Amino acid sequence: MYDSTWLESHEVVSGNQVLLHCDNDFLIRVTVDGGLFLHQKYGELLDFIPYPSDESAIERRKRKPWWRLWQSGR
Questions:
Q1: Phi and psi at residue 11, in whole multiples of 5°?
Q2: What is the CA radius of gyration of the chain?
Q3: How far apart are the C-alpha atoms of 6 and 1, rounded to whole Å?
Q4: pLDDT, tens digit, 9 for 90 and up, residues 16-38
Q5: What pLDDT is stored for residue 7 in this prediction?
């Protein structure tokens, strides 16, 4: 279920996007665009998928962050 890896290098893709290269051919795309978004690509995958890839984590990211709920009560 879990694997250890080393970050070998990084590559700037655009002004708001970085690609992280790990030693086990694992790629993580980090995008900052109104929030922080992570996508992963590994093995024989042709396209990036959301990271983490479990559905509950993806659903949690769609909800309004707790600190914004707190700020709206002021």
A1: -140, 125
A2: 15
A3: 17
A4: 999 999 998 889 999 988 888 88
A5: 93
* 11 beta partners: 19
Q: How far apart are CA 13 and CA 15, in angstroms?
A: 7
Sign of CA dihedral 73, 62, 43, 19: negative
pLDDT at 36: 85
**C-alpha closest to that of 48 among 69, 71, 70, 17:** 17
Q: Where are the beta strands (DSSP E) in 1-74?
A: 7-14, 17-22, 27-32, 36-41, 49-50
Token pair of 69, please?
A: 């709920």
Q: Report how far residue 70's alpha carbon sits from residue 15's, in angstroms, rounded to the nearest whole number.
A: 31
Q: Among 7, 20, 6, which Cα is nearest to 51's?
A: 20
5 pLDDT higher than 80 = yes
Global model pTM greater than 0.90: no
